[in-house]
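note to self: dont lose this again. the chain is below, predicted strucutre after it. 276 aa total, dont forget to put it in the shared folder this time
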Amino acid sequence: MLSSFDLPRIKHANSGNFFLIAGPCAIEGEQMAFDIAGQVREICEQLAIPYIFKGSYRKANRSRGDSFTGIGDDKALAILKAVAETFDVPVTTDIHSEPEAELAAKSVDIIQIPAFLCRQTSLLVAAARTGKIVNIKKGQFVSPEAMHFARQKVVNAGNERVWLTERGTMFGYSDLIVDFRSIPIMQATGSPVIVDCTHALQQPNQRSGVTGGRPTLIATIARAAVAVGADGIFIETHPNPAQALSDGANMLPLVQLRPLLEQLVEIRRVIRHFPS
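---
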């Protein structure tokens, strides 16, 4: 389905592989962003995986008031634009308010709507009006069937370029579960469906005020997502998650990305021989 969307700089769109959205949780600096983008792009070139670089230019949804929120909007957005131009890849970031839509659209190819804001009508409309692809993350409190209405808000605003992302459903106060039925249910809307394999393993609401995670299960979620037929995979990755300034507890160490993607490509190759 990726090939049906006009996405600048995308490579291998007709390879038959899933597409990958990957990068750090937050933009921490240019060298870090370049290091990650360069390594992931090289892996994806070798495996014929369509690749999109992701990095948040601002972190607005934080547990504690003293949590890292960013290095400055203009600086972070300039780095995202530089990644796109230097490595010839599409880039994406998330927004949190209507004015941010137009601001971010100057630097990125895809606007991401955070899960907590997936029902925020004015935000969805503002994102739609940029003309960019709008990737809406399914809220932890929303059924996959209800994402039809979030998608329709973007379509009704004149933009049919909508992606939907599964990132888990709240299970108690400090855990999430992934219901893989969500993938075909949301695909029935006509949009590509992505599975966020890192945020789906978050453990929010910790006493420390710092979100935890279960990164050892990222491969489990990713393998299952590809086997079920997800169009895309979302993975936050970092050279040293323990030193990451945001969400280090549920990011994949960059060194583990290649072997995981090699497994996923093989799974994809097998399931392509079976009718959906």
